[in-house]
């Protein structure tokens, strides 16, 4: 290998290493997998996915306020594992209230809990957390228990 080709190989190797490091670091930092459902075909399903995507940052932030008390590393959030439970208009002035059913995960798609998160949206699009209810706790596999800070909460009925 001549001198010029050796330098090209070294530069490519270094750039590949940097790229891989950035990809791993990005996934560890964000813990989200922004993925739409492939099987969604109706306009209603597409609208639900759009609404969920627009609330993802809020859902993750508000969910983390609860789960950060129990887990060292942030949990994963996949928007296709969320559902819209209810949307209603009420109040004076009129606001829209939207309730999501969420299921944060740890590891490779292992759910840690079922939650309901309700937001109030005003006419300007401002979102306010109204309620967070942790409805169900799932058993955490032994291999992932080192990620826990303290015992997990009991399921509320």
Which terms would index this structure?
157 residues; two-stranded parallel sheet; alpha+beta; 28% strand; four-stranded antiparallel sheet
For the biggest β-sheet, the strand order reads 3-4-7-8
Element order: H for helix, E for strand: HEHEEEEEEE
What portion of residues belong to β-strands? 25-35%
N→C terminal distance? 69 Å
Number of strands: 8
Query: How much is the radius of gyration in Å?
Result: 21 Å
Mean pLDDT score: 84
Which class best fits the helix and strand makeup? alpha+beta
Q: What is the count of DSSP helices, taking H or I runs of 4+ residues?
A: 2
The global form is extended
Largest beta-sheet characterization: 4 strands, antiparallel
Low-confidence stretches: 26-30
Considering DSSP H and I runs of 4 or more, what fraction of the residues is helical?
25-40%
Write the layout of secondary structure elements.
Elements: H1 3-30, E1 32-33, H2 43-67, E2 77-78, E3 83-90, E4 95-102, E5 105-106, E6 110-111, E7 113-121, E8 127-137
Any overview of this molecule?
The longest helix is centred in the N-terminal third of the chain and has 28 residues, at 3-30. The model is unreliable at 26-30 (pLDDT under 50). The protein has helices spanning 3-30, 43-67, and strands at residues 32-33, 77-78, 83-90, 95-102, 105-106, 110-111, 113-121, 127-137. A hairpin with a 4-residue loop joins strand 3 (83-90) and strand 4 (95-102). The chain has 157 residues and is α+β, with helices and mostly antiparallel strands. Helix content is 34%, strand content 28%. The chain is extended, with a radius of gyration of 21 Å. The strands form three sheets. It has a four-stranded antiparallel beta sheet with strand order 3-4-7-8, covered by helices on one side. It contains two helices and eight strands; from the N terminus they run αβαβββββββ.
């Amino acid at each position: 290998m001549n001198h010029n080709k050796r330098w090209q190989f070294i530069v490519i190797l270094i750039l590949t290493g940097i790229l891989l490091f950035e990809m791993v670091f990005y996934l560890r930092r964000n813990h989200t997998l922004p993925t739409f459902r492939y099987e969604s075909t109706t306009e209603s399903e597409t609208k639900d996915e759009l609404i969920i995507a627009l609330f993802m940052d809020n859902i993750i932030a508000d969910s983390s306020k609860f789960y950060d008390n129990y887990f060292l590393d942030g949990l994963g959030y996949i928007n296709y594992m969320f559902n819209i439970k209810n949307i209603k208009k009420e109040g004076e002035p009129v606001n829209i209230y939207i309730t999501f059913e969420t299921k944060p995960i740890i590891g490779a798609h292992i759910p840690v809990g079922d939650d309901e998160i309700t937001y109030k949206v005003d006419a300007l699009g401002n979102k306010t957390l109204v309620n967070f209810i942790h409805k169900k706790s799932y058993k955490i596999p032994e291999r992932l228990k080192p990620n826990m800070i303290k015992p997990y909460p009991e399921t509320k009925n």
